Amino acid sequence: MPILTATEVTVYSNITASVSTIVASQLIPLVQERVVDICQNDFATDIIVIATVTFAASTLTLLGNDWSTFGFADNDEILIKNSYRNDGYYEIESFSGTTASLASGYTCVDELSSRTVVVSLVKWPLTVKRGAALMVAFDYDTRPGRVPGLVEYTLGPFKERYNVSDKGQDNYGYPQDILGSLPLPVVSGT
Asked: Are residues 48 and 102 in the same domain?
């Protein structure tokens, strides 16, 4: 499952869009990429398989080791790294022996090689889901009304900063009150 569902966006935020509109907007995959970048964390767990995997586009399957012996279960989200063409997040509808079948909406590219890939189980913490929901709501409801390049807006005692965090990290223009809900990386001083 991606970082969150459209239904979760409506539960964790006050977005004005319906579930079907959120799905059609394609904002959830975009926000997921941004969360991974901002947090500098791919949210992979310690359930990891390092194996040779064959990607079959026609059957939407991944062929490899006996997945269940490693702790994978139906409807898990996995992260694939080190493939030639299929790195990324995938939801697996079912695992059966050496076959992992992709969930509806996911695709892969044919890839048969002796290259060793890393397959990790992904778990999105609830705080990250809530932050991502606020980011989707911001992108849908607030961002379209903003002036491009505007860094700060002040109206009486009310002030908002848009493009740069206090640490100077580019945050895709999200306000600090939204980013504060994400587990940001620790920046060590030099």
From this structure: yes
Neighbours of 44 (CB within 10 A): 18
Supply the DSSP symbol for 187: P
Give DSSP secondary structure letters for 29-77: HHHHHHHHHHHT---EEEEEEEEE-EEETTTTEEE-S-GGGGT--TT-E
Number of domains in the chain: 2
Report the candidate in 136, 177, 123 with the shortest Cα–Cα distance to residue 32: 136
Q: Helix (H, G, I), strand (E, B), or coil: what is residue 81? A: strand
Query: pTM here?
Result: 0.79
Whether the pLDDT of residue 190 is over 70: the answer is no
Residue 183: CA count within 13 A, CB half-sphere: 11
Domain contains 69: yes
The parent domain of residue 98 ranges over 44-122
